[in-house]
Amino acid sequence: LPLPAWMFNSLGFSKYAVGASGALTVATNTDLELVAPYLTFTLDPRTRPTGSNLASFSRTEALPQTRNPVSLALKGGFPGLSRLTVESGADIHTDPGGAIELSSTSSILVNGRLAAPSGNITLSIPKVRGGSYAPEQSIWLGASAELSATGTVKLTPDAQGRRIGTVLDGGTIVFEATRGAIVTERGSRIDVSGEI
Q: For position 9, what pLDDT does the model report?
């Protein structure tokens, strides 16, 4: 069942969880920008009569300096059939402080880019009941894989239009393969550096 990328940047949710009993794939050249738009008032809501249509005195915005970060969890759940793949050229990225979680009871292959500036990226193969070590159930970063949770600067203009902000630390990248192995091919990149 294909899911369009626009679902993850226009519906206004701050958390998404997508699960599959079979294979789960983020296709080549998919640009998955995780954004949570919000409503802002165009008129003072205290002046509007009870029962007014909210759309008549608000508009949708998604300004980077004021929107909240989004978290995305992609999960494959059926042992042996739930390979999770992020193909080459695919790009999943959040606003500062966001989170990306990939979880599978089979294996995870990343050849694309995962970016959560000053956020959290987790790749895990949880242990299932009765499960023992299974080297084929690996977390595998291909040669073109990039995982980035670098520090960043979040700027917010004040009432006078001056840009003020906060320098955020680098985030975290966690690998958990309780049932198998973790492999990083030459050329793959893992980056949690601070903001320069």
A: 79
